[in-house]
Amino acid sequence: MKFKFWGVRGSIPTPGPQTNKYGGNTTCIEIRTDNNDLIILDAGTGLHQLTQTLLPQMPINAHILITHTHWDHIHGLPFCTPIYIADNKLTIYGGQDLKTGEGIERTLKVQMQHSFFPIAEHELKADVSYKTVKAGEKFRIGEAVITPVLMNHPVINFGYRIDCDGKSLFFTGDYEPQLNIYEPDGSEYQNFQQMIDECADSLVQTIQGVDALIIDSSFTEAEYVHKKNWGHGTYSGALRLATQAKVKRLFFTHHEPTRTDAELDAIYAELLTNNQQMNCELIIAQEGVEVVL
Ligand SMILES: [Zn+2]
Ligand SMILES: [Zn+2]
Questions:
Q1: What's the DSSP call for residue 85?
Q2: How far apart are CA 277 and CA 280, in angstroms?
Q3: Is the dihedral angle over the CA atoms 167, 173, 177, 182 positive or is it negative?
Q4: Spatial contact of 249 and 211, defined as CB atoms under 8 Å apart
Q5: What pLDDT does residue 186 have?
Q6: For the segment 238-271, what is each residue's pLDDT rounded down to a tens digit?
Q7: What is the rounded average pLDDT of the residues 118-138?
Q8: What's 178's DSSP letter?
């Protein structure tokens, strides 16, 4: 199994000279199993460039796992060229929207409403189908086993563990470890904290020993003080989880949109200096980089 980063930016695309090195496209990761099955994690703007490389391989059979439907994770869907070409098969997986009760099939229909896009979803030429995933309900794509895990974020959001070819990876989507919403001296605090701790333990068990953890690391600790409950994680939170779960390689991603290459380089140097004893390889996710597990 191998994977390639096509988008590593959070929130909004950030093209320009200050982001050339790490990349400005929003979240998209291509996974290829040893059988060459194609699994795509999230459909941010990186999906567009990925799909350009698929055109010579058509007809394609792609499985797109959507963590959640915030724009930076779905923006590329209407620009996924193979959906307009007959004989291609695309299956889009995602959660059920808690407010509307509708599944992931709603996403493209809304994105392609007449006011927002010149082509309607029902005009797609490819065989596009939708599957609603549920927390903990494993499913297969070829030889790969996918485990969706509910992750804390302002909308329903799944992390995905993928096991295939004797290797494993976990991608969090957007993720902020749950904070206790009660005051420490309040009667509800203990019960809520117990729930938080159980969820955290369960997450550690689910990702235990994965070959790669790809995790939302939007903020430094100093930034996070002002951005609690925005739904995003920190570098130190990622290090903590990677240590607890004994992961082999840790990829920091969902780079904050104002973060320049120089700033990411400086953060990386500090991470390496401060974590020399860590039994895990630390890597800043970078657009265009392919990783063989
Ligand atoms: Zn995001
Ligand atoms: Zn989000």
A1: S
A2: 9
A3: negative
A4: yes
A5: 85
A6: 999 999 999 999 999 999 999 999 999 999 999 9
A7: 97
A8: P
Q: How far is the CA of 69 from the centre of ligand 1 (A)?
A: 9
The 10s digit of each residue's pLDDT in 40-83 is 999 999 999 999 999 999 999 999 999 999 999 999 999 999 99
Q: How many whole angstroms from 100 Cα to the centroid of ligand 1?
A: 21
Nearest to 161 by CA among 179, 138, 195: 138
Q: How many angstroms is it from 255 CA to the middle of ligand 1?
A: 9
Nearby residues for ligand 2 (ion, Cβ within 5 Å): 70, 174
Distance 216 CA to ligand 2 centre (A): 10
Using alpha carbons, select from 253, 287, 92 the residue that is nearest to residue 175. Answer: 253
CA 41/CA 47 separation, integer angstroms = 9
**CA–CA distance, 170 with 276 (Å, rounded to integer):** 23
Contact 162, 34 (CB under 8 A): no
Query: What is the pTM (predicted TM-score) of this model?
Result: 0.97
- 11 CA to middle of ligand 1, Å? 5
CA of 157 to the centre of ligand 2 (A): 8
- The rounded radius of gyration (Å) of the Cα atoms in the chain is 19
Give distance in angstroms: CA of 153 to centre of ligand 1.
10
**Maximum Cα–Cα distance for the chain, whole Å?**
62
Alpha helices by DSSP H, listed for 179-274, are 189-206, 221-224, 235-245, 261-274
Surface-to-core class of residue 148, CB atoms within 10 Å of its CB (0-12 exposed, 13-18 middle, 19+ buried): buried
Of the listed ligands, the closest to the CA of 216 is 1
